[in-house]
């Protein structure tokens, strides 16, 4: 049975993505710190693993062919949590995936992770964490997709994308709905070669902007 482990399945994007996966009849293992946050999702193809990412969570990887790291420390935490979740937990997830023979690892990263020093000063710890986690995955030997969305919004999904960074900063945005849709495509249509893709709302369909 083909299963996908979603790390951070109760987050703002993670929960949307989890529901999309189930709606598409995919078997999901949802790794969350508090399973009550998924109490409104009931599906026979959903298994929930309750675990703290600061502890050993390798047991969640058993029998999973795909892994999606969608966890994040959140905007209201300090640099310490950013290091522990966005960097260290992401690196450990890649290591666990390698140990367990995972076929495809999808990392939800961020625009600016390629050049953290060029980002806003208050965002640099977060961007450094994302950069280092991405680099660890790149050098892990895993088959991967790294998706770097622009600034996130809570508008209704548009279903239209571009992988070309807009010239105007205020246009470099994407809805959380659409990031979830992109993750679904990345999992169900894994690229032949490992890829890194920046993603924004635009005028193209997801299959036109994400390699498969």
Automatic annotation (TrEMBL):
InterPro entries: NAD(P)-bd_dom (IPR016040), NAD(P)-bd_dom_sf (IPR036291). CDD domains: SDR_a5. It comes from the Bacteria. Gene3D superfamilies: NAD(P)-binding Rossmann-like Domain. Residues 8-190 form the NAD(P)-binding domain. This is SDR family oxidoreductase.
């Amino acid at each position: 049975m083909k299963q996908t482990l979603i790390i951070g399945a109760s987050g703002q994007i993670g929960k949307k993505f989890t529901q999309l996966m189930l709606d598409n009849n995919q078997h999901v293992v949802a790794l969350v710190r508090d399973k009550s946050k998924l109490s409104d999702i009931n599906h026979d193809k959903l298994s929930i693993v309750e675990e703290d990412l600061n502890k050993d969570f390798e047991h969640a990887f058993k029998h999973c062919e795909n892994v999606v790291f969608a966890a994040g420390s959140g905007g209201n935490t300090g640099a310490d949590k950013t290091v522990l979740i966005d960097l260290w937990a992401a690196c450990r997830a890649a290591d666990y995936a390698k140990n367990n023979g995972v076929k495809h690892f999808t990392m939800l990263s961020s625009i600016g992770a390629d050049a953290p020093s060029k980002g806003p000063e208050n965002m640099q710890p977060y961007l450094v964490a994302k950069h280092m986690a991405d680099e660890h995955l790149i050098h892990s030997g895993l088959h991967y997709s790294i998706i770097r969305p622009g600034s996130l919004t809570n508008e209704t999904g548009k279903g239209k994308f571009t992988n070309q960074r807009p010239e105007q900063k205020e246009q470099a945005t994407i809805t959380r709905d659409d990031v979830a849709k992109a993750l679904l495509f990345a999992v169900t249509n894994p690229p032949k070669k490992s890829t890194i893709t920046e993603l924004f709302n635009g005028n193209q369909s997801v299959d036109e902007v994400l390699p498969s």
